[in-house]
Amino acid sequence: MVQAIVAGAAGRMGKRIIHSIQQSAGIALAGAFEHPDHPALHRDAGEEAGAGTLGVEIASSLEAVADTGDVLIDFTTPTATLENLRTAASRGLAMVIGTTGMKGEQFQEAESLARRIRCVWAPNMSVGMNVMFKVVGEMARLLGNDYDMEMLEAHHRLKKDAPSGTALHLARILAESVDRNIESVGVYERRGQIGERTDEEIGIQTWRGGDITGEHTVMFAGIGERLELIHRAHNRDNFARGAVKAACWLVEQRDGLYDMQDVLGLK
């Protein structure tokens, strides 16, 4: 039985991950924690998540529960995830990371630490989205430079980073599939007299509003036709199920940095 620890246990994703753990065979909730001033501290993690009494109290730090589990599942914030990753690396604790928004030195340190342990780190844990990652690159290669590539992502009004980590990953796949560098060709805003669209650019646009869980549309626009590939997340449960699948897979692996393509056997 895989023993899992959930970071941000009283947050939107943390609660759904706890639900998914309870509904999955071969894995159990061993520990849960929140930041030190969270009002849910010391409550039962299952009751807080609406999953019934589990006898697992929400602690104030990873250090307090690190010895109880085999794997940590973390969908929190860049700063919190990096701190948790430092602790996991010092203890040899496996880790599943769904946090997005890390950049620069923060990302570099996190990536270095993740390679020292067993770690699955993916911008999107959804099975459907990971199939989209696989398919979109092949579509870009087949259509080539005759089709303009554009992307739109939409999320709820509380999301703090933009574009989404999923959108950035899709953009990298598109660019690499046609031998371009997304840092050079990515266009994230259009306003005013911008002139004609270049052949090389890849547009990545952002919407924020309401309670949209997550939508990503990739468009290939040619002369006389266009193709659109769309993924819509109806709720957070698909991300939670993917994270639990990753946790169960990860504990059997060697140290190293993996993604959901590895978990699902899509590479």
How would you characterize the overall build of this protein?
The chain is α/β, with parallel strands linked by helices and 267 residues long. It folds into 2 domains: 152 residues, Rossmann fold; 107 residues, Dihydrodipicolinate Reductase, domain 2. It is 35% helix and 24% strand. The strands form 2 sheets. The protein has a 7-stranded parallel sheet, with helices on both faces. Strands 8-9-7-10-11 form a 5-stranded mixed sheet. Helix 1 crosses helix 8, helix 3 runs parallel beside helix 4 and helix 5 runs parallel beside helix 6. It starts with a strand and ends with a helix.
Keywords for this structure?
267 residues, 7-stranded parallel β-sheet, 5-stranded mixed β-sheet, Rossmann fold, 2 domains
Question: What are the SSEs and their pairings?
Answer:
Layout: E1 2-7, H1 12-23, E2 27-33, H2 45-49, E3 58-59, E4 71-74, H3 78-91, E5 94-97, H4 104-114, E6 118-121, H5 127-143, E7 148-155, H6 165-177, H7 182-185, E8 186-187, E9 202-208, E10 214-221, E11 226-233, H8 237-250, E12 256-258, H9 260-263
Parallel strand pairs: 1-2, 1-4, 2-3, 4-5, 5-6, 6-12, 7-9, 8-9
Antiparallel strand pairs: 7-10, 10-11
Helix pairs in contact: 1-8, 3-4, 5-6
User: What is the first-to-last residue Cα distance?
Assistant: 27 Å
Measured on Cα atoms, how large is the radius of gyration?
Answer: 20 Å
CATH architecture of the largest domain: 3-Layer(aba) Sandwich
* Poorly predicted runs: none
Q: Percent of residues in helical segments?
A: 25-40%
